[in-house]
Amino acid sequence: xxxxxxxxxxxxxxxxxxxxxxxxxxxxxxxxxxxxxxxxxxxxxxxxxxxxxxxxxxxxxxxxxxxxxxxxxxxxxxxxxxxxxxxxxxxxxxxxxxxxxxxxxxxxxxxxxxxxxxxxxxxxxxxxxxxxxxxxxxxxxxxxxxxxxxxxxxxxxxxxxxxxxxxxxxxxxxxxxxxxxxxxxxxxxxxxxxxxxxxxxxxxxxxxxxxxxxxxxxxxxxxxxxxxxxxxxxxxxxxxxxxxxxxxxxxxxxxxxxxxx
Length: 261
Hints:
The structure is a single chain. Helices cover 19% and strands 31% of the residues. The N and C termini lie far apart (39 Å). The chain has an eight-stranded antiparallel beta barrel with strand order 1-2-3-4-5-6-7-8. With 261 residues, the chain is α+β, with helices and mostly antiparallel strands.
């Protein structure tokens, strides 16, 4: 396992260094490994799993995402989260920590405009730690802990489907356990490397795949899913990064006071 993280970290760091020199365009399809043909849907069916947090008999047959696949910036396209619905042009950026070679941890940064304000970007920073259950590493599952004043808003996020849409653009379906000390319920998110989201044929297949899991909780989350606002409002800006103030979530105090970041 140690050697795996070391190998992964080299590519993670290389890609991350390029990430912050690029200007936002609304697309990052180049930030993934060479297209894995068997994971493009259509023509192939999408492989789904129940979230390990909801599955006491975790399916070890899950085909995990390749090392480094999640590194970089993703766009939130659909979600039932009432919190996410308060924002627009929401992005999620993952990058390595100094200890990634040892423990697989990632830096987790979400950035977004409020629905009615685009003069500053909200920033929320935390650390993702790979989930371990009964002494075994659960692939594509992470425990997220924000820093500073947002530490109470910790939760677990888990990939339940991933691949490439019919246009070859990476996408993923993510389940999130309740956050904010239980004050905010679970969510189901569809994210993409393109701010337009997955192609229509792929989106239809995603919805059918979620229904095919026959899980009441996921069905309820899917029924309340909405399309989040992505309008290219951040195009022309640099991709998000996090300074010394950001990593402590000190900006959250300004947000609470209504003054923003």
